[in-house]
Amino acid sequence: xxxxxxxxxxxxxxxxxxxxxxxxxxxxxxxxxxxxxxxxxxxxxxxxxxxxxxxxxxxxxxxxxxxxxxxxxxxxxxxxxxxxxxxxxxxxxxxxxxxxxxxxxxxxxxxxxxxxxxxxxxxxxxxxxxxxxxxxxxxxxxxxxxxxxxxxxxxxxxxxxxxxxxxxxxxxxxxxxxxxxxxxxxxxxxxxxxxxxxxxxxxxxxxxxxxxxxxxxxxxxxxxxxxxxxxxxxxxxxxxxxxxxxxxxxxxxxxxxxxxxxxxxxxxxxxxxxxxxxxxxxxxxxxxxxxxxxxxxxxxxxxxxxxxxxxxxxxxxxxxxxxxxxxxxxxxxxxxxxxxxxxxxxxxxxxxxxxxxxxxxxxxxxxxxxxxxxxxxxxxxxxxxxxxxxxxxxxxxxxxxxxxxxxxxxxxxxxxxxxxxxxxxxxxxxxxxxxxxxxxxxxxxxxxxxxxxxxxxxxxxxxxxxxxxxxxxxxxxxxxxxxxxxxxxxxxxxxxxxxxxxxxxxxxxxxxxxxxxxxxxxxxxxxxxxxxxxxxxxxxxxxxxxxxxxxxxxxxxxxxxxxxxxxxxxxxxxxxxxxxxxxxxxxxxxxxxxxxxxxxxxxxxxxxxxxxxxxxxxxxxxxxxxxxxxxxxxxxxxx
Length: 639
What we know:
The chain is of the alpha/beta class.
């Protein structure tokens, strides 16, 4: 019995040391991205480490019966842990080599603990817990010391009588072409499709960027990424421009942010103006479970069936809707993000994971993990081998996202306020699923699969049911559209106007719809150098997918211009070439010249920097002038 007890204690000590090492390792990417799971999540990780290590320690009990048994037991623990790490390691240039650190740290720290135990038996445990506590606190201390202080919250002013509630939902990573309302053959989106029939559907909407941070920063400020400055080369949204939450708050709205997307974080400046932010992503990991060794191990052995936090997000909204008084004194603005279609693609409830495929779970999981690793520089599996099951998993993610969207709408229906709520649904970006350059994911390219996103607006008092808008628009206009529907003066900082004029003049499309759309603002999208953030560069032949490049895209009807920072340009006609396989830049020089001239007009009109400009120069160009500042003060948006 004494040997079993000693083996268990050694195992628990090793587990504590390995967990501490993993927590400190994760501090490195935390400082790069300024977000990550919180202490609650890592306490769960530590408990799971202790459980697994305790079991391994007990299995090694026979080693304690022989000479040098304690040393052999510790060596065996380290080797066993390394073996488990290799079983589920993400094959990337950074993560694969780092898998050796926890087992080595476990060996070294436990060995040092023997020395401390000579001073006092409790000393190694006290030291180990202190090191763990420091690792848990380090991210919060780092954010506190490096994040500009948030402005003090003023007392809410009275709201305009009859102000509607506003609910803004981002279907993260959902591309338009994968929804039934946009013609998809699979039944993936009954809730979205029904809401579209009850409101206005924009058939050709474009996101302002290709991944979460710049797209949400644009959604919240109504400005292009090169203007607001929150992108891959500068990962913080500063306070020069009022956010949608701040504007609604200044008009008497209570503001709520409920999301499992870690990019929507205080450390990145995106939650400015929200009085309440759900903390589920910090406590439960969400999509970040794929980066946790112990959760990948649980997944490998079938002990983990979880979504990416969407169920918690929907439940939080349902709880809010039930608790909110029917005669609430103030209107509310609620922002939600559902990230269920995002990679890792297999991290879904199994009823939707297997909705469109009968592949075994082990194969789906391996494909998903391989594609997750490829996002961070690992080897990519051949698209010809994995495209079909990947699309099936992705579509399952869309189904789950739509199911969660339906829960939000149903909660408002049950409360009796859906028809009195400005209800806007869109995506921050889409996803490529093997259609281009053997690539799965989003971020480094402006192909339509990534920038073509869903957009619907539902508000029966002002939005006609069944309206379908064919003119190309930008989701950058969501800010101004919400402000107009809520009868709130928009701030003068917006770079795109409201889409409501299209509901009257542009429903049928044609030249009138195009004219109105052009007055609302350009349809454009931007990418900054993502390798500055990830440290990963891939050499691809596809000119739209070259890492280390900045891109800017402009639409004019069906013509699509893609400029690169090196001066090269691509031109496509989406009417005849929706797959963007035929570059017209050399074949149609007159069209190229006209589109380049239009691009120069847009840059001049909005004060946007050239693609090769220093990001700091571009940010400086977007400083507010005195007249704009005075307008913002008069409207109560800044002090």
